[in-house]
Design brief:
Blueprint lengths: L2 H5 L6 H5 L1 H12 L5 H14 L6 H25 L7 H27 L7 H29 L6
Helix pairs in contact: 3-5, 4-5, 6-7
Length: 157
Amino acid sequence: MIPGFRKMKFPGMKARHLRLDRFLRMTDNLDNQPYCPECRSLAEAAEQLSKQTMQTEKDFQQFEIQYLNLFRKINEHLKISHRYRLPNYFISLYSLLYTIVGILAGLFVVYLGRTGNFGKWSYEIGALLGFVTGLAIGRISGYRKDKQIENEHKNLF
């Protein structure tokens, strides 16, 4: 979509800063939602933006402001309305949550072992084992969920 963006010339490192590759993938995601009127209006706005010409630095600054606002709107709309997610979103989320739960579970097991007179258990070892176990379970379950999102073609970019 939007061949105009592929032909634009930007001063300096601005093309890398603007992340046009992500923008183009998000506009492709807009095209995958044919029954959403907001997606159609955002796609039309992106099409109009791609037709702008930039002669001076001031033109580029105005383009950059419009581009960043449109990028934010498309990003929010796809995330909220169509449940698109960032790549590796669930790996990060599940790793954090399961790590916290694993540490707390490891500390709880050590506490039960000490109060039950089952020997002198170390809180550090319990926390470490809980951390490793929670992190491993979180990474595996997050990877599976991210694969499911990828198979449904719901990655944001």
